[in-house]
Amino acid sequence: MTISAVTERSSTSNGALYHRFGGRVGLLLAAQDQVLTSVELATAAAFATAEREPDDDRAVRLLAAAALDVFTEHRGAMRAFLVEARYVVDAELFTARVVRTNHELAHTVTGWLMNRFAACETDAEATWRILFALASSQALFDDHQFSARTMSDTDLADALARSVTAVARRPPE
Prior knowledge:
The chain is mainly α. It has helices at residues 3-10, 14-21, 24-52, 56-73, 75-84, 91-117, 121-140, 143-146, 153-168. The longest helix has 29 residues, at 24-52.
């Protein structure tokens, strides 16, 4: 992303962008904030829908499908702002916002699993980390790069939902 590319797309001047954002880093931080806020809002909406679903299996299936939709919709931005942002000149500025989003999403996922299923904290945290790993890997790789076999989003969402409920419903030791 360059200032000139943004000025072309937005039909504004370089001066106006520099005045508003202070330069390329400010522009990138604003773009990052917009994308991560969008991911947070989509996640909150998905959990609100799941919370209204009385059937646990359907609720988890809704969340699995929503997660995959978010991963797909924001793939490029997730790659840029979750994975590659740590390699930019002002990495600490980008990292702070990423960490805030990651922690918020972790709190949402783990809290829901512990409240809905009485999952223990360790199982809920492990489930979050698996979901985060899936999101990260999907940001980095196309489906055909994972395996010689392809999976539809529907099949993946179904399997993901079964995996989450298996961990969430694990009886306490």
